Amino acid sequence: VYPILSLVQVTKAIGDGNFASRAKVYSQDEIGKLARMFNLMAEKLQAYQTEVEEKEAFRASLIDQIVQAQEEERISVARELHDQLGQSLYKVLLRYQSVQRDCAQRNRRCTDLEEDLRGLIDEVRRLAWGIRPSLLDDFGLDSALQQYVKEISSRAGVPIDYKCGFPANASRLPDRVEVILYRVAQEALTNVIRHANANRASVVLLRHNSEVTLLVEDDGRGFDARAAFQGDIASLGLMGMRERVALVGGNLTIDSQPGKGAAVRVRIPINGDI
């Protein structure tokens, strides 16, 4: 029965994912034929596994290129809005102010133009900030998140607490990690404001040893987290967050149930390979 026991052991190894395992052929009888057919099956499984891994690597590379291209385009558009359109509107404002006295004497409604122009300038700056905040590039993730949480909390009327626990002498996170964590926090808070009907929310950023953790929680109506990843169009934002985090070897988990709020947790390892 040794050939049968050997075949059982190899079967177990294949079941555990070791597709390189092969059964030893002891004879040319029926057990030997079974071992040869089993080895043929194992070779096909190994070839299929290799093909899947290659396709997955190609998909991850393609997603990475798309994400990088998106961020580069965001930087370009934000710069155009701030430096071109914003500056042009500011010049118009200055020109208006230079002739404001004469204009006001002819038509009192001209005095409203300055307020309108200032509103447009503020809106352009807000759009540029939403696309790619300069704080993220200049001062890092902590400053960018703190400002973003402050602005979205004020705009939406939802109290959002923010805490950052980084060691005092910690260096800045890698650029890709900062961008991904910022986008995840942005997407998570957008979902809170739009869908959660929450009374409060919080954002916590922690760094310890060789890992950085981001936690976004709310006390809203919650949702079925498992069903959200089953391919529904409404879950594309969640899938996008998970894909982004996976690009840097991180892990994203969502803990939520209907009526019990939601918690989005991201853990990303920090090392020289990122």
How does this model look, in words?
This protein has 274 residues and is an alpha+beta fold. 62% of the residues lie in helices and 13% in strands. It has a five-stranded mixed β-sheet, with helices on one face. The mean pLDDT is 82. Helix 2 (30-98) runs antiparallel to helix 4 and helix 6 (141-156) runs parallel beside helix 7. The protein has helices at 2-15, 30-98, 100-106, 111-131, 134-138, 141-156, 175-196, 225-228, 236-247; strands at residues 160-165, 201-208, 211-218, 251-256, 262-269. The radius of gyration is 28 Å and the shape is elongated. It is built from nine helices and five strands; from the N terminus they run H-H-H-H-H-H-E-H-E-E-H-H-E-E.
